[in-house]
Amino acid sequence: MKKIVDERQELELLKIERAGFYVLFFALAADISAKTLFFQVPFRALIGENVAFLAGCVTILAGCMKRGLWNYSSKPGLKNYLLSSLIGTLIFGLMFLASLIYRDIPHAGYAALIFAISIFILMFATLAAIGEYTKKRQAKLDQEYEDEDE
Hints:
This protein is mainly alpha-helical. Helix content is about 80%, strand content about 0%. It has four helices and no strands. The longest helix is centred in the last third of the chain and has 42 residues, at about 110-150. The chain is globular, with a radius of gyration of 20 Å.
């Protein structure tokens, strides 16, 4: 199939596709979260949404790790792992607390605190593992490209 767009148009298409992916990603995440936390929709009813969501997550994560990329505005490091883990913990912890309060669960605060601590540890460990792998992969790719230039 012959490509009929020039480089500028291709970059614009990539930006549009990226924006579309993020809209779909966050809309799907919000839908799954709302249905699970507030409407008590059983997990079985959300299998399709979860598979689609995880497929998007794994595709982006594997692609970035394979190419030694982290993101546009930061590098992998302890500060970013902590900050990202704290932000994620706040988001998911508050959503979990709200769902417990909505369902009138006793001791919702304690349950939410334990959940938040667990989420923080899980997120930090995952980000640290992925970040350290990404740094090693990036160094390896930099060395390969450096060897090709010589």
